[in-house]
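Why does residue order matter? Because the sequence determines the fold. Keep that principle in mind as you read this record.
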Amino acid sequence: MPGVYLSWPFCGQKCTYCNFASGVLPRDLEPRYEAALLAELAAFPWPAPPDTLYLGGGSPSRIPIPTLQRLLAAIPGRPWLEATLEAAPGEITPGLARSWHAAGINRISLGTQSFVESELRRTARRHTPASAAADVATLRAAAIANINLDLICGLPGQTRDSWETSLDWIARLDVPHVSVYMLEIDEDSRLGLEILNNGGRYGAAEVPSDDLQVELYERAVERLRELGIERYEISNFARPGFESRHNLKYWRLDDYAGFGADAHSCLAGLRRQNAESAQDYVAALEAGRSPVLSETPADPAAERFFVGLRLSSGVEVTDDDEAQFGERFRNLTRDGLLERADTRVRLTPRGVLLSNEVFQEFLV
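Structure:
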């Protein structure tokens, strides 16, 4: 069964670390964006009803409930096995949570990022640790117990003690899924650009060293394992049975269709990307044009390893794989970055930390 990704790029504020195609956009663009999304959904030739749905952004938790109902009504397959909505902490009311549940949402991903107020203020996040905890309780009261909490490793001012504080909150809230992301440094975020330019705004001068970030990440792996939350993908940890069904489709190269600005799809051997900005996406559909910005053939042989090695379970190696990549397997195993287990190959703990270097070996 395919999965569906729906992009809602509208935010209440632009976080300093964010490098997504989202932000504070004109309010009068929202109804036009909804109409464009509905048009793209209506034109899509569904090969089969999807079994997973993911609403990302942006802050899709800000979608007005009538708009959300119209969007979800345009997607077949309800009730979906998993329907995730990304939510901005500190903005969830009991009525909103009940409406999400009634609309078919059964999983919420909370962008908490940290449980230390000084770290949150520097990123422009508006919630507090207490309000995030209240959100978890509100969701559970609305019968949404499948909850993910995000943490970012490497925020400005982060220390061993402050990281432990965030991990303590994770333990206290007892959620079944946690995502731990390393801070991404590139020109697409205000913080990243400041770091690259050796500036001091947004706390750029106080970003932890690479060595400390690695230490903090490894501490999260250890602490979460103690809580029964095992790593199943480089950045994702879950109790058994609570792995993200939708995200697993990406890493297993299953089909998925993306709708909205900067949404990506992988269908019938083709990878597609929509127009990056909400304005360009809306303009294309309003003019009767396709919103697809690029379309390229997928390369399953290489992508199985480039994507699949992110999974802790690794990738099954076929005879064809051995013929094509055998020397690379041997070299990476010799360097302590890969390990073989029967007919599977997977990253070692050291390989996880140097995963980008490993993945590059399979770009052919």
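The first helix runs from residue 29 to 43.
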